[in-house]
Amino acid sequence: MEFIFDRPDDPAQERYEIALLLDRKKLKERILIGIRAKIQRRLQGVKDAAVFLDVERELGTLLTEFTQDKEKAWNQYGTMPLWDALHTHRFAQPALEKTARDFLEAKYRYGTPMEKYAAIRIWDGYRRARIPKDRSDAAEKYMRDISGLKTLFLYTKKPEILMKSRNRLVESHSFEAEEFDLDIWYPLGRFDFECAMGYHSLVPLVLYYQKRIAEWQLCFQKCSVCGKYFLAPSQRYSICSEACRKIQAKKSKQEFDDRARSNQYDMIYKNVCQRWRNRINKAKRIGLAEERMAELNKAFTEFKQSALEQKKKVGSKKLTLMEFQDWLDAQDEILNSFLE
């Protein structure tokens, strides 16, 4: 079922709620958005029960995908244009409504489940506030209805804080009592699950999530390959998925091969340098002329400089190991020419 961002004269009276189910055994989370009665029927197995969202994902996704509203776009484009529309004459309302509708529809269609729910509730709160008999306090009614929804996006300082249950979740915000409301359905009868239902605010839903993760002794880790956060059994885990594990294995093998290759051509270079030193020492013992000794030392210095350049080419794969060996062998002719 699709949510329509329209402006009916008589909006639906049922509340649109968000439901969260966490499965410890399967390590899955399930999120549903819709009217409570329809959500309940969907959970009972009635697949055609109309809801706006019913998605099952890896456990922890709801928290790891959270994005901070640094630019306060929710306030600027989502809630305030509707607030202004409730204060102005009817000819100016369509333009303000369009600004909010475009923003909220984009969040509903392409955003995370939390963003989808916030978009639905903000627009529905505006529709309810426009009921003619409530026009005198329409704006105040609207703000009371949706004030708790934007709390998470506006006042959460860092996305990572959602993954740390011991830290204070929201800063610089005074909560209304109803913003802590959260219904919990415990396993009973035909229901073999625990379900959390939220309406006024998303904050208690996140707090509930954090509490369950802590109770199950799971923790969030940052993947050393892709940099994403994931839920792990302990802090010893540093890779989030099999795909990243393959990438890490390939990288480790490449690093090992590079080290082995580097050690090989470096050893060849050192052996040739030592051969030069041995022959220089031999030249001293046999009394090679001083002028020739100076030329020999100069040739050795030039050889080392050239050899280092050749080594870099091997390291950058511009020169093969065999070509490097051939080049070193050719330098022996220079060395032998001094000792003939």
What does this structure look like?
The chain has 340 residues and is of the alpha+beta class. Helix content is 52%, strand content 11%. The chain is built from eleven helices and seven strands. The protein has helices at residues 36-43, 61-64, 73-85, 93-110, 113-129, 138-146, 151-155, 203-215, 242-285, 290-315, 321-339, and strands at 16-23, 28-35, 53-58, 183-185, 195-198, 219-222, 229-232. The strands form two sheets. A five-stranded antiparallel sheet has the order 3-2-1-5-4. Strands 6-7 form a two-stranded antiparallel ribbon. Helix 3 (73-85) packs antiparallel against helix 4, helix 4 (93-110) runs antiparallel to helix 5 and helix 9 (242-285) packs antiparallel against helix 10. It is elongated, with a radius of gyration of 35 Å. The model has no long low-confidence stretch (mean pLDDT 81).
| Number of DSSP E strands | 7
| Percentage of residues in DSSP E strands | 5-15%
3D shape: elongated
Widest sheet: strand ordering: 3-2-1-5-4
**What oligomeric assembly is this protein in?**
single chain
Structural class: alpha+beta
Quick synopsis:
Helices cover 52% and strands 11% of the residues. With 340 residues, the protein is an alpha+beta fold.
List the helices and strands and how they pair.
Blueprint: E1 16-23, E2 28-35, H1 36-43, E3 53-58, H2 61-64, H3 73-85, H4 93-110, H5 113-129, H6 138-146, H7 151-155, E4 183-185, E5 195-198, H8 203-215, E6 219-222, E7 229-232, H9 242-285, H10 290-315, H11 321-339
Antiparallel strand pairs: 1-2, 1-5, 2-3, 4-5, 6-7
